[in-house]
């Protein structure tokens, strides 16, 4: 059963006024606007708040935005690679076709969040707290969820090879339609994880088992 994830609540999206970002300051509040077709770089600020904002074709580079607050926000075709969003609060937010390579979301809190068609190789979600989050058709190679609380998290048709899930309780987490040759997990956390028959061999090594093939086959 798919979890219900509330979408961003942005009324009259077509009437949002465009806004340019030059320099962000700590605790700045930005709301009800469209930020598009721009480069935002060399920013360093804490607790910046975005509410009812659409980012479209935006690149954020060489920036540290600790404890950013995103509520009712949509990112479309954005490049957020290597941005430091540690300790973020993310609520009713969608990332669509975004680059999140190496993005730091460690210790973030995620509720009603959807990431679709994104590239998140080496992204960090370490120690994150998730409640109602879906990753769909995303590439998440070597992404890191170490000791994250994956409450009602979905991975649908994602590439998660060598992802770190150590310290994560994987009960009811369905990985059966994801692709991977190996994961970094703790055997005691696998109870209740849902996988396909084809994926089972990837976990055999964790259990110290050896598969003996029939030489006559």
UniProtKB/TrEMBL annotation:
Signal peptide: none
Pfam assignment, any one: Pentapeptide_4
InterPro entries: 5peptide_repeat, PA_immunity-related
Name used for this protein in its record: BTB/POZ domain-containing protein KCTD9
């Amino acid at each position: 059963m798919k979890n219900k994830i509330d979408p961003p609540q942005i009324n009259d999206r077509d009437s949002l006024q465009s806004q340019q970002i030059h320099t962000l300051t700590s605790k700045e509040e930005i709301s009800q606007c469209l930020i598009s077709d721009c480069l935002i770089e060399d920013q360093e600020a804490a607790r910046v708040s975005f509410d009812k904002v659409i980012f479209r074709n935006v690149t954020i580079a060489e920036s540290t935005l600790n404890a950013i607050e995103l509520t009712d926000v949509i990112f479309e075709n954005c490049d957020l690679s290597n941005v430091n969003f540690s300790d973020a609060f993310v609520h009713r937010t969608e990332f669509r076709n975004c680059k999140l390579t190496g993005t730091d979301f460690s210790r973030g809190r995620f509720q009603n969040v959807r990431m679709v068609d994104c590239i998140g190789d080496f992204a960090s979600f370490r120690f994150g707290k998730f409640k109602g989050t879906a990753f769909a058709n995303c590439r998440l190679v070597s992404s890191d969820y170490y000791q994250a609380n994956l409450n009602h998290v979905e991975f649908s048709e994602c590439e998660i090879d060598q992802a770190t899930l150590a310290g994560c309780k994987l009960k009811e987490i369905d990985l059966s339609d994801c692709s991977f040759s190996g994961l970094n997990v703790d055997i005691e956390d696998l109870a209740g994880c849902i996988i396909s028959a084809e994926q089972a061999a990837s976990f055999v090594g964790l259990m110290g088992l050896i598969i003996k093939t029939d030489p006559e086959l």
